[in-house]
Design brief:
20 helices; 4 strands; mainly alpha; globular
Length: 502
């Protein structure tokens, strides 16, 4: 079977669009964001440096070397006249292409479309990177993951051409993010384990050379301290999955995916029913213990992969599942890769939904119309029962980015232009933060990033003799201070600037 076995028939197109409807809904709803998170610091750096500086010099924006990512983001920013919006579109297109690539290779297209819709729609928080200038790191890696999965499920036999292609792509994508090397090594180990009987001496030598080269690339791209897991890596791992599963509704989605994957196991009905029961009981326990049910879905997918002896996928799940441990502060972005692998595994070998059915097609059309209509209405400010409440966190986060932009613009043209803007609440990493889940009062960036951004616009440091102006979000008041400016908000409440009498 061809890797890109993508039929142009309307039915295939229909389910292809359905597979990316979940992430498309949230992206269309949230786009565009103003500067958010680290983007403040990136804008400052990109306004100061030229092309060669971005390509060769460390700018202090990331912990390791990622030249292609930096060049891509710099070009998008500078060629658009200093806009961060083109990079947001590129981030989305890359993510959508990754899902469509996997859809094109998988046989169980209809079930995969529904699973993808559920994952993209219900487990979207990791895709917040779509709205970041520094989100340039992740979509190329997601496309690489989709490519490796497509090789595994569409042509399981060991082929030298696929090894060469995967190795070349790993080298390129590692210049966007070094995680590509980890994913590549996992793929190669699983690929060889599945094809031990067919491995030639030439392939063995080639692969050994590829792996040695990969190790050399890692040493070149990642400083020595970055090669070791931090002592709080497990806290970061767990926090990342908690940040994906932000409320009980998302826990229900994780439970549904776990049960659905259990149903697709190639075992007796009794065993599948038992798996469903165990999954349900464990899900209740996890919710009670405030643990993410998503971990159960990953475990069920790993079990299924072992049972069907798809060792390439087993290794990819293991590698992708531990990627969030690299961020000791926790980041839901690093969880999107294992979500893609599990979405693939959940559908493998289950063809009950693949028969042509006018009813099934009609339901898919209705779902697409619902997604498009809901996105358009919510973006226009129309209140929709249930949907408005679910969409509010993303819209509130977007609103805060523009409120912050408004406040900075006001301050620089006001009588307070020499004051320092100070965020009333800390913006720390999710693992050590108390406002990472309930984000109403959480600022859209950190103090360090804001200081650099405002300093670059003002072209000099704030006058320390003036004292600070406190900035709050979500209608929060600063005790003992007078409100001197406010930006109204529809989704998160008022953002305010406060001044205390000295």
């Amino acid at each position: 079977m061809s890797l890109l076995n993508y039929s142009k028939q309307p039915r295939t197109l229909l389910f292809g669009f359905l597979s990316i409807a979940g992430i498309s809904f949230w992206f269309l709803l949230g786009f565009p964001f103003a500067n958010h998170n680290e983007s403040y610091l990136w804008v400052v750096s990109f306004n100061r440096v030229g092309f060669l500086d971005v390509l060769w010099k460390p700018l202090g924006l990331v912990a390791n070397v990622r030249p292609l990512a930096m060049v891509t983001a710099w070009l998008g920013y500078r060629l658009s006249g200093g806009s961060i919006y083109p990079q947001q579109v590129l981030n989305y297109l890359g993510a959508a292409l990754a899902w469509l690539l996997l859809f094109s290779a998988i046989k169980e297209k209809k079930l995969f479309s529904w699973v993808s819709l559920l994952v993209g729609g219900g487990l979207f928080s990791g895709y917040i990177y779509l709205f970041h200038l520094h989100g340039v790191f992740y979509s190329p890696l997601l496309m690489f993951m989709a490519f490796l999965l497509a090789i595994s499920i569409s042509d399981g036999r060991l082929r030298t051409s696929w090894l060469v292609s995967a190795s070349a792509l790993a080298a390129i994508v590692s210049l966007y993010h070094p995680f590509a090397i980890i994913v590549y090594i996992a793929f190669v180990l699983g690929y060889f384990l599945e094809n031990l009987r067919f491995v030639t001496r030439k392939q063995l030598v080639m692969t050994f050379l590829f792996l040695v080269t990969s190790f050399g690339l890692v040493k070149m791209l990642v400083p020595n301290e970055g090669l070791h897991l931090k002592t709080n890596a497990m806290v970061g791992l767990l926090t990342s999955y908690r940040m994906v599963e932000v409320n009980l509704a998302v826990s229900v989605v994780s439970w549904l995916l776990s049960v659905a994957t259990g149903i697709t196991l190639s075992t007796s009905l009794r065993i599948r029913a038992a798996v469903g029961g165990v999954v349900t009981v464990l899900s209740f326990v996890f919710v009670w213990l405030s643990l993410p049910v998503l971990i159960i879905w990953i475990a069920v997918c790993l079990l299924k992969s072992v049972l069907i002896e798809r060792w390439t996928i087993v290794f990819l799940i293991l590698a992708a599942a531990i990627l969030p441990a690299a961020s000791p502060t926790g980041s839901p972005v690093y969880a999107v890769f294992v979500l893609m692998v599990c979405s693939c595994v959940a559908t493998l070998g289950y063809f009950s939904l693949e028969r042509d059915s006018i009813l099934h097609d009609s339901v898919a059309v209705a779902a697409l119309i619902l997604v498009i209509s809901a996105s358009a209405l919510l973006k226009a400010g129309v209140h929709l029962p249930i949907m408005s409440r679910l969409a509010n966190p993303l819209l509130a986060e977007k609103e805060k980015t523009f409120q912050m932009e408004d406040i900075v613009r006001w301050m620089l043209t006001s009588d307070f232009k020499e004051y320092r803007l100070v965020l009333s609440q800390a913006w720390g990493g999710p693992a050590a933060s108390t406002n990472a889940i309930n984000r109403a009062h959480r600022p859209p960036t950190g103090q360090h990033y804001l200081d650099a951004y405002v300093g670059a616009l003002r072209k000099h440091e704030a006058d320390s003799s003036t004292g600070p102006l406190w900035v709050s979000f979500g209608g929060e008041k600063v005790e003992g201070a007078e409100e001197v400016y406010a930006v109204p908000g529809k989704y998160n409440g008022e953002a305010s600037v406060w001044k205390r009498d000295r």
